[in-house]
Design goal:
Blueprint lengths: L18 H10 L1 E4 L18 H10 L3 E4 L17 H15 L4 E5 L4 H5 L1 H18 L7 E4 L10 H16 L7 E4 L20 E7 L3 H4 L19 H22 L3 E6 L7 H17 L3 E4 L9 E2 L4 E2 L1 H8 L2
Parallel strand pairs: 1-2, 1-8, 2-3, 3-4, 4-5, 5-6, 6-7, 7-8
Antiparallel strand pairs: 9-10
The protein binds alpha-D-glucopyranose.
The site of alpha-D-glucopyranose (GLC) has 5 residues, from loops.
Length: 328
């Protein structure tokens, strides 16, 4: 397939502040997460089945990229050789090609690997073998395909353990994809943990990521998976009162990026449909503006489930959200 965006030439990786890494991050630009589909226990179980039309709508709206969260762990043997189900792989091939053929850069990750969060030492060899298979399969795909090691390391997968484990995952990728861009975040992909993320100095094809849902009582009000969030219903967001918190938070991330000479990808941010639309649009617009001022690429959470910017029944964008995202 033909990618018409200008890609940097692939050369041997320089040791510091690889300009190509920043160019690749700009390729991610403005993106949206195709959540609740391949991250569900099986596709469709959470009400979303990917469709070609979805990729078309995303391209037509003017996004640059998609992030596709994937629950590989539910589609691979639990024991060695941890083989990934061939039919599932074909489904992911299709999704990747849907994006690339429409000129959308694409991030695939490992999402909801809960066994890994709960028992990282035992599960790490399985995760490395999953990555070995994924990387090998996609080694010849264009550089507009990005790999993200693991969504929100959490529970037992502390920053210390993650620091010891992720180099093996990265190596499993580098053996077949020496120049592929790889995205890595800290515990919970939280901004507060970003300073604990220690990336290998000699690998410059890396992008650091964080997720932003502050204030949680606004973005996650009434979310069934967040304890006590029922009581948060009715919370609004006011830029005049809370905009300075957002600016301060993003300045922390930007300053980490400058110090470490790494590009930054805001891989998730978004608000649930239980919050009122005016606040949602205002928060979304403010986050996007701050991210772009800081030079971060970003991906809204998410396309057409409970945080959705798109209404799959009406087959239409929710205009206030789309307008906020793409400054329309
Ligand atoms: C994280 C979770 C995902 C959830 C989202 C918003 O990505 O893995 O399941 O929907 O955050 O809470």
């Amino acid at each position: 397939m033909i990618i018409s965006v200008a890609l940097p030439l692939i050369s041997s990786p320089p040791s510091k502040a690889d300009p190509d890494a920043f160019a690749f991050n700009r390729l991610l630009g403005r993106g949206i997460n195709l959540g609740a589909a391949l991250e569900a226990p099986s596709e469709g179980a959470w009400g979303v089945t990917l469709k070609a039309d979805y990729f078309q709508a995303i391209e037509d709206a003017g996004f640059n990229s998609v992030r596709i969260p994937i629950r590989w762990s539910a589609h691979a043997l639990p024991d060695p050789p941890y083989t990934i189900d061939p039919a599932f792989f074909e489904r992911v091939d299709w999704a990747i090609d849907q994006a690339l053929s429409r000129n959308l850069a694409v991030v695939i990750n490992v999402h909801h690997y809960e066994e890994m969060d709960n028992d990282p030492v035992k599960q790490a060899p399985r995760l490395a073998t999953l990555w070995r298979q994924i990387a090998d399969r996609y080694r010849d795909r264009p550089q507009a395909l990005f790999f993200e090691l693991l969504n929100e390391p959490s529970e037992q997968l502390t920053d210390e353990r993650w620091e010891r484990i992720f180099p093996d995952l990265l190596q499993a990728i580098r053996d077949s994809n020496p120049f592929r861009m790889v995205i890595i975040g800290a515990y919970w992909n939280s901004l507060d943990h970003l300073p604990r993320l220690v990336l290998p100095q000699d690998d410059r094809r890396l992008i650091a990521t964080f997720h932003y849902y502050t204030p949680l009582r606004f973005t996650h009000q009434g979310a069934s998976w967040v304890a006590n969030s029922e009581g948060w219903r009715g919370t609004k967001w006011d830029k005049d009162q809370e905009g300075n918190i957002l600016r301060g938070d993003f300045e922390k991330a930007a300053s980490w990026g400058r110090q470490n000479e790494r590009p930054i990808y805001l891989g998730e941010f978004g608000t649930i449909d239980q919050a009122e639309m005016e606040s949602r649009a205002s928060w979304t617009r403010a986050v996007v503006r701050e991210a772009e001022k800081s030079g971060f690429s970003w991906s809204y959470w998410e396309f057409c489930a409970s945080f959705g910017a798109y209404d799959p029944v009406a087959k239409a964008w929710r205009r206030p959200l789309l307008g906020a995202l793409l400054d329309k």
